[in-house]
C-alpha cells in the first residue's frame, strides 16, 4: 500500500459488524460476491436478522449460497433476487443447503422504495499502489458492477487476498475514492464452479468450510 492512500484507507477500514449497521429495514443490498460468497459481510448481516424486515438482497448467482439465505426461511427478513445479469431466468432449487425447494424472482428496479437505501457489497483484492481494488475476473469483467456501485448510497468492500489484481485485461476495479467502508476477512478459499450435464452450474468450496454461528 502506498503512502498516498494510507490515511484514507485507515479512515474507511472497519469491522464487518460495524459496516452492516448501515442496512435498515426495507433497504436494497447488492451482493457482488459470486465465487467469494463465504464472507464476513454476509455473515454479519445474517446475525442482524431479528433487527431487520423486508431487506431485498440482489445477487449475481443464487447457487453460491449465503448465510443470510440460510438464516431466514420465512423471507420475512431477507428476500433474495437474482437480477444482476440481464436475461437470467428465475431459478428454483438453487442449492443443496437451506435453500433447496425455494424459488426466487428476478429483481425489477421499480421495486426499490423511494425511502430505502441502496448498499453495494463486494469481495475484492487488496488495494494496489494506485488505490484500486479488483473484482475477481470470474465474477465481473469490464464495467459490469459499475452501474450498481455508482448508484449506491453506501459501497462496502471486503478484502480477500486470494483475489489477484489486474491479471486480466478486462478485469473490473473500483477506486478507494468511490468506497465508504473497507473490511478485512479470513481470506477463505474461493468457490469452484461445478458443471454437470443437464443441471444448473453450482459452486463448491475448495476445502470444507463450516458455518458455525447462531441466529
Mean model confidence by pLDDT: 76
Q: Give the beta-strand count.
A: 11
Structural class: alpha/beta
Intertermini distance: 37 Å
Per CATH, what is the topology?
Glutaconate Coenzyme A-transferase
Helix content: 10-25%
Instruction: Please report the first level of CATH classification, the CATH class.
Output: Alpha Beta
The profile of the biggest β sheet is:
7 strands, parallel
The helix/strand order is HEHEHEHEEEHEEEEE
Strand percent estimate: 15-25%
- The best one-word shape is globular
Gyration radius, in Å: 16 Å
Could you characterize what this model shows?
The chain is α/β, with parallel strands linked by helices. The protein has a single domain, classed as Glutaconate Coenzyme A-transferase, CATH 3.40.1080. The chain has five helices and eleven strands; from the N terminus they run αβαβαβαβββαβββββ. The strands form three sheets. The chain has a seven-stranded parallel β-sheet with strand order 1-9-7-5-2-3-4. A two-stranded antiparallel ribbon has the order 6-8. The longest helix has 7 residues. It is globular, with a radius of gyration of 16 Å. The C terminus is likely disordered.
Question: Layout of helices and strands, plus pairs?
Answer:
Blueprint: H1 6-12, E1 13-14, H2 16-19, E2 28-32, H3 40-46, E3 55-59, H4 67-71, E4 78-82, E5 118-124, E6 132-134, H5 146-151, E7 154-159, E8 173-175, E9 181-183, E10 191-194, E11 202-205
Amino acid at each position: 500500500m502506498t503512502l498516498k492512500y494510507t490515511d484514507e484507507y485507515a479512515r474507511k477500514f472497519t469491522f464487518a459488524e460495524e459496516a452492516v449497521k448501515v442496512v435498515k429495514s426495507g433497504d436494497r443490498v447488492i451482493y457482488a460476491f459470486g465465487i467469494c460468497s463465504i464472507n464476513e459481510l454476509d455473515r454479519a448481516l445474517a446475525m442482524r436478522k431479528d433487527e431487520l424486515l423486508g431487506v431485498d438482497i440482489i445477487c449475481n448467482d443464487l447457487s453460491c449460497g449465503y448465510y443470510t439465505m440460510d438464516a431466514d426461511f420465512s423471507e420475512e427478513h431477507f428476500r433474495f433476487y437474482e437480477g444482476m445479469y440481464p436475461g437470467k431466468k428465475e431459478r428454483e432449487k438453487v442449492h443443496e443447503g437451506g435453500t433447496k425447494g425455494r424459488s426466487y424472482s428476478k429483481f425489477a428496479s421499480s421495486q426499490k422504495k423511494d425511502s430505502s437505501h441502496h448498499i453495494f457489497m463486494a469481495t475484492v483484492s487488496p488495494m494496489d499502489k494506485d488505490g484500486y481494488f479488483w473484482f475477481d475476473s470470474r465474477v465481473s469483467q469490464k464495467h459490469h458492477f459499475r452501474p450498481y456501485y455508482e448508484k449506491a448510497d453506501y459501497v462496502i468492500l471486503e478484502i480477500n487476498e486470494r483475489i489477484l489484481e489486474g491479471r486480466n485485461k478486462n478485469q473490473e476495479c473500483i477506486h478507494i475514492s468511490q468506497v465508504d467502508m473497507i473490511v478485512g476477512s479470513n481470506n477463505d478459499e474461493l468457490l469452484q464452479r461445478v458443471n454437470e450435464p443437464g443441471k444448473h452450474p453450482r459452486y463448491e468450496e475448495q476445502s470444507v468450510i463450516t458455518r458455525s454461528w447462531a441466529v
